[in-house]
Give the backbone structure.
Amino acid sequence: MASLNVGNLGEFLREQRRTAKLSLRQLADAAGVSNPYLSQIERGLRKPSAEILQQLAKALRISAETLYVQAGILDERDREDLLQVPAAILADSSITEQQKQALLQIYESFRKETAHQRTAGHETPGPADERTDGRTEGPSPGRTAEGPAE
């Protein structure tokens, strides 16, 4: 099997796994992937999907975006912008870890959906585009939010 062009993803994963003091089998179990599949990723023989990278990142307790950059899915410049929302969620002490993970999964699913729609050639409508009568949301001209202008 020829090595795929996945950058240094496999080496990076192996280094992260060893730093976390996890065996190949332990990381595979924690990420929900097979041991041989993870071995092939580490050796550069397989290119994992974004979902698999997210599972591996969660098991390694690192950001999925870090793995996306290593795999060439995400540009390093985009990474800085993408880390702001997850960082804010993770820093919020008023919600539980389970709630944080749920929010992160929802956020990631929205990002994937939007990216898919952009690559398919159509954007998601904004709030002003959602009305069928051509008007945008908000008060009518000559009116305030409280009532008619005087």
Remarks:
- The radius of gyration is 21 Å.
- Helices lie at 9-19, 24-31, 35-42, 50-60, 64-71, 76-82, 84-91, 97-119.
